[in-house]
Amino acid sequence: MxxxxxxxxxxxxxxxxxxxxxxxxxxxxxxxxxxxxRIDLDELMKKDEPPLNFPETLDGFELAFNxxxxxxHIHTGEPFVFNYKEDLHRWNQKRYEALGEIITKYxxxxxxxxxNLKKExxxxxxxxxxxxxxxxxxxxxLTNPEKIMVLIQGSGVVRAGQWARRLIxxxxxxxxxxxxxxxxxxxxxxxxxxxxxxxxxxxxxxxPDSAKKPSPDASDEPAxxxxxxxxxxxxxxxxxxxxxxxxxxxxxxxxxxxxxNSTPEEHTLYVWDHFISKSLAKNIFIVAHSYGGLSFVNxxxxxxxxxKNHVRxxxxxxxxxxxxxxxxxKSIRDWLREHCxxxxxxxxxxxxxxxxxxxxxxxxxxxxxxxxxxx
Length: 375
Fold this sequence. Notes:
The chain is α/β, with parallel strands linked by helices. It is built from eleven helices and 13 strands. It has helices at 3-37, 41-44, 89-113, 165-170, 173-176, 179-187, 223-245, 264-274, 291-302, 304-310, 330-339; strands at residues 63-65, 71-73, 118-122, 133-137, 147-152, 191-194, 201-205, 253-257, 283-289, 311-317, 340-344, 353-354, 363-365. The strands form three sheets. Strands 3-4-6-5-9-10-11-13-12 form a nine-stranded mixed sheet, with helices on both faces. Strands 1-2 form a two-stranded antiparallel ribbon. Helix 11 (330-339) links the parallel strand 10 and strand 11 (340-344). It is globular.
């Protein structure tokens, strides 16, 4: 078949498939709208949701980690049950999130007490009143003359010391935390720095609009009239939100960004500039999971010469970096091919070379078929 005919046929197939998919999507949307129109939301909400009041300790949940690092019920020995109340997914999810916050604090305690890491507050010149973050470091992280290991987690709810909250709760501490990496590194003489790339803001209760002072350029109309007008305009939106999305009238929160640490990328760059680059270690090794790989590539783009001079190897796990979208130059791509390895989800035996979609660094099998989610 002539080349032009082949191209035409290929384009025709692409267009036809796109049209079929668009029609199918349209039919699904129509069916969904029809279904929603027949749902009586008032009837749906008649089933009262229990109060969103949850314990603040593991004891309160009647849970504890056993000698194997598994989270178990202190009386029955059973694993954590997500569907504690049937047909109340939102309540169960809130309960799970409350437990997750306790787990985060528990892991912090392990880092400090068992791993003997110290907390360093960020920004380093923060004032008393501004939002802060922190990282963890071993005592010799900046003075070890030979080598340090830097751990960068993925995105999501996980905080310093965690790879995946779900694994901590459903599997064990060794599977879901960075503690085995930290202990092994220290045993082999590495200094350790544990980043905290998802601690990007301070969460505070949102001030109601009615409590805010009007701006200087506000309308000259009487305040009472203006308030009535604003109340009418917002009533429908608030009614729907309060009635269906927020039946218990939860507090509305807002986030105040942490200076120079408001994103994982900013945080990684900040920690490099103020800690990692100041280490006396001749050799820096990095372990980066998922979004942590993207943050590292961003660091390379921002501090290419420094990274090349100090970092000896990077171990990535299911990294989501993209050297093309991130516009990494050729010298960076060449360096990544020589110094990085990305262990990816695959059913192949461990360390089997996997054909990469992007020719940036070797990708080998992690002998797992599913990416370890962080939530």
